[in-house]
Design goal:
Chain lengths: 115, 115
DNA sequence: ACATCGCGCAACCATCTAGTTGCATTTTCA
DNA sequence: TGAAAATGCAACTAGATGGTTGCGCGATGT
């Protein structure tokens, strides 16, 4: 948890923003949660229980795939999608970085007030 | 080991998705990082150094504000914005939850393979 | 062999979004 | 008092986004 990852993180919103954007849709967020359960699902399976069309789900999966959060493998006539954790880890690091920034700012403020 | 707790977290993408969406834009992500530095900024100050219009920045700040990530206070003729950490904390929790789900899935898979 | 399942492609549509410009309003300060 | 600064409000545009429907095609199972 305490890896010293310096300023390489700071200016990478160019790579992180698409991941956040991919998570910014309720449908996609639900898909991510389901796939993070470990089991791969086909498009039709993921469509089951959602009142959306198969095409809609398919499009959402494409978005997640281009964001790198999901990988697809063709298995016969069906296309299996499985979760891919790396982008989310990157995004978590980023949020931790911002939180740290904020916490340090508060500490400085507190130190200043107490003088 | 299956805690029946997670329903408090699991089904909250309805509240988390807007925060992710707010972070899903490069401009807004940059604004968040800047404001997380601790110091409050006015709209004009935040516009400085960005090739966007003041109105564009203003709109982005509105988006961040309705997502709860930023709070504004009127100070004379200028409007000061400061970072608000709670939504980001919630989102971090959520990502941790998904990661845990994934890690446990991997553990189960490993245990299964090793039998 | 053939019906069916799962999928991709394409067109189409409505709405949202990011951005602009123009103008009005309030606050500051010389 | 009056100019300039900081903001708000409104209208508008181009392009992205989320969703649908229709059709065609390769894989599957009986």
């Amino acid at each position: 948890m305490s890896q010293k990852r310096p300023s390489t993180i700071a200016l990478k919103w160019r790579t992180h923003a698409p991941v956040f954007a991919a998570l910014g849709d309720e449908t996609r967020l639900a898909l991510v949660v389901k796939l993070a359960g470990g089991r791969p699902y086909s498009i039709s399976q993921l469509t089951q229980g959602s009142r959306l069309t198969r095409q809609a789900i398919s499009k959402h999966l494409r978005v997640l795939e281009t964001a790198g959060m999901v990988q697809s493998v063709r298995a016969g006539r069906e296309n299996l999608f499985r979760f891919s954790p790396r982008p989310m880890e990157g995004v978590k690091e980023y949020l931790d970085f911002v939180s740290q920034q904020w916490d340090r700012a508060l500490s400085r403020l507190k130190a200043f007030v107490e003088t």
